[in-house]
Amino acid sequence: MRETTGGSSTALRSILLLVVPAALLGAALAWALAAPSPVLSEAPVRALAGCAGATVIGLGLLQRLHRRIAPPWRHLAVTAGIWAALEFVLLACESAQVVGVRVTGLRAGEFGDYLTHTSAGQVGIAILIGVTVVAGYCAVAYRRPDRATVDLVLMIAAVAIELRPITGHMSQEPLGAVFAAVHVLAAAVWFGLLLALALVLRSRGEWAQALPRYSAWALPAVGAVVVSGVINALIKLGGLAPLVDTGYGRIVLAKTVLVTGLMALGWWWRRSWVPIAGDHRMSAESSLRRAAFEVIVIAVVFGLAATLAVTA
């Protein structure tokens, strides 16, 4: 099969930008399902920040799938910079919600009080500092890659992406923080690593080497997402009836339907796409198209999950 040309590859790769509206669509869908239960207004920003953080994790892990690919420092620096900006906006949204004003009406003193006198603000500051350090380190590493290690990026990014979930409502339950950490990290590997493949891989040979390894990682990652998600939902809901009777339950149900569909798609990919690509019998363009479709659907799930985290 013919390899992807530079122009068609770039045009197809631009489809990955649909991850942004897909995540926002997931948040909007969750808002509709939650009514009349209250939902905090920062849910869309949470969704985008989650996607950015997962992408940093995925880009950092990429070399483990294909050792001949150097860490994509430029992609990492840009994505971490976007993540840092989103975390700052998220902090402002949370502060405005507590104060009871719009973000545009938030005063500097009120913002400062939120950051210094609330546990959520302090957690947010820690996340923002960590993500900013990652962005700065990756920017320097882009200029001097011989003196940089992606392991440091992964370590800080993993802590940053876990901090908010493990200090949320699940932290009050036995082993709740553990399940929350497993859930968010497994989801980051599932989504972020596939998005990293779509962003970085250029040739049929690179897909042939990396995709089967990704598939082997994705299976336990999806399993961890499902198991930890079911446990978290059962703890929060306390039964099956609230799946229909409460806004939180309806979002869980929608998320379950989408994840089930993605699991079925993954099963089909493992029987069709993965072995064909692994045998060098599929073009890079075809692999990119399939990866783009899956990450866009997963982004909708990220939007649902982000709204779920701030739904009463």
Automatic annotation (TrEMBL):
It is a multi-pass membrane protein. It is found in: Cell membrane. The keyword Repeat does not apply. The keyword rRNA processing does not apply. Its main location: membrane. Residues 209-308 form the Copper resistance protein D domain. Keywords: Cell membrane, Membrane, Transmembrane, Transmembrane helix. Coiled coil: none annotated. Pfam families: CopD. The chain crosses the membrane at residues 44-63, 75-99, 119-142, 149-166, 178-202, 214-235, 247-270, 291-310. PANTHER family: INNER MEMBRANE PROTEIN YEBZ. This is CopD family protein. It comes from Nocardia albiluteola.
